[in-house]
């Protein structure tokens, strides 16, 4: 059961923010290509950093708390999901605030 820890955290992130898509109709999933275009460059940098840190011995993942499925650069599947799900959840949250607080602007 401990092997599902990281995946559970990602699942809670999904539950905590993806409901905004359904109930507030934030429209982020309708613009998924646009969101991924914004997320991908940053995710690439963090994945490169992870790969370097793992290879150098500065960073590791507790094998008891992950599924044991690894992608390129010996990075666990959960870490790749993290770099996609968390930014997507953040974008959904920002869009939800913009819907609820019509006078709130992120640009000046």
UniProtKB/TrEMBL annotation:
One GO molecular-function entry: lycopene beta cyclase activity
GO BP terms in the entry: carotene biosynthetic process; carotenoid biosynthetic process
Pathway entry: Carotenoid biosynthesis
One cellular-component annotation, GO: membrane
Keywords for this protein: Carotenoid biosynthesis, Isomerase, Membrane, Transmembrane, Transmembrane helix
Subcellular location: Membrane
Principal place of residence: membrane
Keyword Glycosyltransferase (UniProt): no
Ranges that cross the membrane: 6-24, 36-54, 80-100
A Pfam family: Lycopene_cyc
Residues covered by the Lycopene cyclase domain: 8-95
Membrane topology: Multi-pass membrane protein
Name of protein: Unannotated protein
Species: freshwater metagenome
């Amino acid at each position: 059961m401990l092997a599902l820890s990281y995946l559970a955290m990602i699942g809670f992130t999904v539950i905590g923010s993806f409901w905004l898509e359904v109930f507030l109709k934030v429209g982020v999933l309708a613009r998924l290509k646009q969101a991924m275009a914004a997320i991908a460059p940053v995710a690439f940098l963090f994945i490169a950093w992870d790969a370097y840190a793992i290879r150098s011995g500065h960073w590791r993942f507790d094998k008891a708390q992950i599924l044991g499925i690894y992608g390129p650069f010996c990075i666990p599947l959960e870490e790749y999901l993290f770099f996609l799900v968390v930014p997507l959840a953040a974008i959904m949250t920002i869009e939800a605030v913009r819907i609820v607080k019509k006078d709130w602007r992120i640009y000046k």
